[in-house]
Amino acid sequence: MNTQLLSCDPAAPEGEAVRRAAELLRAGELVAIPTETVYGLAANALDPKAVEKIFLAKGRPQDNPLIVHIADLDGLRLCAKEVPEQALNLAQAFWPGPLTMVLPRSERIPGICSAGMPTVAVRMPSHPVAAAVIRASGVPLAAPSANLSGRPSPTCARHVALDMNGRIPLIVDGGDCGVGVESTVVTLCSDPPRVLRPGGITPAQLSRVLGEVTVDPAVTKPLAPGQKVLSPGMKYKHYAPKTRVIILRGPLARYAEYIRAKRAEGENCAALCFAGEEEAAGSPALPYGAENDPASQAKGLFRALRRLDTLGVETAYARCPEETGVGLAVYNRLIRAAAFTIINL
Ligand code: TXA
Ligand code: MG
To answer: In 3D, which of 252, 249, 253, 271 has the Cα closest to residue 262?
Structure first.
């Protein structure tokens, strides 16, 4: 299959790219689109055959459910069997934006979207191109991140092309994604509501609307063998570069010393550090954001993980993000990239 790449200006999204995307989506095809979090691989959520193509194109395990993307609250009523007041309050506060809610699934959404679960994950993206494509296609769009399963999520069209060329008919290029990590997933089917995946909307922000909110232990800890998860996505080794990643927790001076010693032993390793630390960390060093700016870390992490694999090193030693605020989302992705390997310095 030939993969076409069409640019679309987020400041003026209506045009050829959006028209072509909508046409393909209505015909049951897949289209990669930009969102404010990461690029998504979209299909008509109401068409089980189209949704099946997503799993094939990504090599995604069949038991990992998808997020359904909507453009307005009518979309929410279509997807969810019932819309509790909590959902409307969250929508009011954070939509459109990087928040996904899990609710009881309506009969209109085929089981394959939710991997057979009785719930559905719904999100209203704020990216103008994503919103325009959903509106123009006139249907809710099932869309996981547009990477091959197990690869870092794509934050620009070039990364989508690296994984999806030849597998899908169209990539819409809307520039770099602003948030850089996937949306926060919160389930309203647990009492109290529970964060299944941290993202750009923090647990503290959710608490201001919902009251008590818990964070699923699987967000920061590996699963025990056979342990049941509420969100199947959490059980896979995700966000994995090919290079082995090890997190070093501790101050910069100890970090730099540790890497220097490894290099002196002859280890071919890179430093996945914070901006401005390149000199201290020694070459090669790859910064993924600034130390006291978790939003910049979120924005830079997946790009850095992809670049890591082009350096030809065995190991990358990563600086450890703070586990608070948006930093929790960065930590959650990085510990998975590191297969939970952390060394306390
Ligand atoms: O920001 C995002 O959310 C991006 C963009 C494209 O919108 N999408 C995304 O989709 O990250 P994906 O498929 O890579 O991640 C979906 C996550 C998985 O961890 C999955 O297990 C969880 O959402 N999920 C989906 N439906 C669920 C459900 N019914 N119950 C619990 N977890 C669910
Ligand atoms: Mg994904």
So the answer is: 271
Residue of 62, 57, 63, 89 lying closest to 76 (CA atoms) = 89
Cis (ω within 30 of 0) for the bond into 284?
yes
Q: And the tokens for 90?
A: 């969250």
User: Hey, which of 114, 231, 301 would you mutate to test ligand 1's pocket, going by the most ligand atoms within 8 Å of its Cβ?
Assistant: 231
Q: Is the CB of 119 under 6 A from ligand 1?
A: yes
Q: Where are the beta strands (DSSP E) in the chain?
A: 4-7, 31-33, 40-44, 67-69, 99-104, 119-123, 141-142, 170-173, 184-187, 194-197, 214-215, 244-249, 269-273, 285-287, 315-319, 342-344
Q: Does residue 91 register a pLDDT over 90?
A: yes
Q: Could you tell me the CA-to-CA distances from 25 to 17, 121, 175, 247, 344 in Å, in that order? A: 12, 20, 21, 41, 48
Distances (CA, A) of 276 to 214, 253, 282, 285, 322: 35, 13, 11, 10, 17
Please, which pLDDT band fits residue 174 given cuts at 50, 70 and 90?
very high
pLDDT, tens digit (0-9, with 9 covering 90-100), for 237-283: 667 788 999 999 999 999 999 999 999 999 999 999 999 999 999 99
Phi, psi of 156 (to 5 degrees): -150, 165
Kindly report whether the peptide bond that precedes residue 96 is cis, defined as omega within 30 degrees of 0: yes
**Beta bridge partner(s), residue 103:** 120
Contact in structure between 237 and 150 (CB atoms under 8 Å): yes
Q: How far is the CA of 251 from the centre of ligand 2 (A)?
A: 31
* Inter-residue contact 218 to 234 (CB < 8 Å): yes
pLDDT digits 0-9 by tens, 17-75: 999 999 999 999 999 999 999 999 999 999 999 999 999 999 998 889 999 999 999 99
The answer to whether residues 77 and 83 touch, using CB atoms and an 8 Å cutoff, is yes
Amino acid of residue 185 = V
